[in-house]
Amino acid sequence: MRRYLPSLSALHAFEAAARYMSFTRAAEDLGLTQSGISRQIRNLENFLGVPLFHRSGPRLVLTEVGATYYRDLALSLDRLQEISIDAVRGRSVDSSLMIGTHYTLASRWLPERLGSFIAANPDIPLEIAPALPSVDFETTRLDIAILRGAGTWLHARAIELFTEKLAVVSSPGLIPPGTRLDPLEFSKFPMLQNASRPSLWLHWLRVAGLSYSGRIQGTRFSHNDMLINAAVHGVGIAVIPISFIEPELAQGKLHMPFGDAIPSGDSYFVVYPERKAHQPSIILFRDWLVRQTRKYDRYGASRK
């Protein structure tokens, strides 16, 4: 008996459109035209006999049926991908790990530690991908993530790793090493801004218990690596999570003339989907990561 299945192309088009909530971005992702995406989804809706999107001008909203269909479809496509990978490499995808985290943490904090896991588990393939704290653990393709937040994610389990701590840092060329300044003297120096966390200076003032009514302005950088590089070269001072700048602090390229790092109120957590909670490779990586961060106390970046 022939299976009651729509075309795979139509399913891909719908999954991408629902993930991005945009026909244009779905088309870019799949290498199709916007009209091609629209046609595939129209064909899928005709096949199912129900609308999947409400269309209000350029804005897309999933119908109730569409939202349920998307969640189930995303899981099914993930599973189809997994068994296809299994067939290609001759082993179960359960033995591999897709790890998601903040881009800067992935490029600066994680590599320093990851070597010991790879050395101890050479048969577990790893893939590192960017992930936002807003990741949907019901549908994500990630196996496990390292995320900043308050510790609550739907459809997921989370274990605290370490407290995020913030410091105002300077290069030795801008402020001599060993100098200790009153924290409010920061206003005497050019201030660098973080476009991805634009309120970070105000947040630092609040958690430091400082009262300041002046203007906070300065060159804005869209990425943490740019901001850190500018601080190292003496362009200005910056508020930076110290987990991002361990090498620069250790090498003396940056220092903390306005006082020690202070907790931001957030922590980093290892987070993984409930539906994958018993996958052996996830448990192995989770436990290794917890052991690594239990001793993570350099520059005051310890657990609470």
From TrEMBL:
<dbReference type="Pfam" id="PF03466">
    <property type="entry name" value="LysR_substrate"/>
</dbReference>
<dbReference type="InterPro" id="IPR058163">
    <property type="entry name" value="LysR-type_TF_proteobact-type"/>
</dbReference>
<comment type="similarity">
    <text>Belongs to the LysR transcriptional regulatory family.</text>
</comment>
<dbReference type="Pfam" id="PF00126">
    <property type="entry name" value="HTH_1"/>
</dbReference>
<keyword id="KW-0804">Transcription</keyword>
<protein>
    <submittedName>
        <fullName>Transcriptional regulator</fullName>
    </submittedName>
</protein>
<dbReference type="InterPro" id="IPR036388">
    <property type="entry name" value="WH-like_DNA-bd_sf"/>
</dbReference>
<dbReference type="InterPro" id="IPR036390">
    <property type="entry name" value="WH_DNA-bd_sf"/>
</dbReference>
<dbReference type="InterPro" id="IPR005119">
    <property type="entry name" value="LysR_subst-bd"/>
</dbReference>
<keyword id="KW-0805">Transcription regulation</keyword>
<dbReference type="InterPro" id="IPR000847">
    <property type="entry name" value="LysR_HTH_N"/>
</dbReference>
<keyword id="KW-0238">DNA-binding</keyword>
<feature type="domain" description="HTH lysR-type">
    <location>
        <begin position="6"/>
        <end position="63"/>
    </location>
</feature>
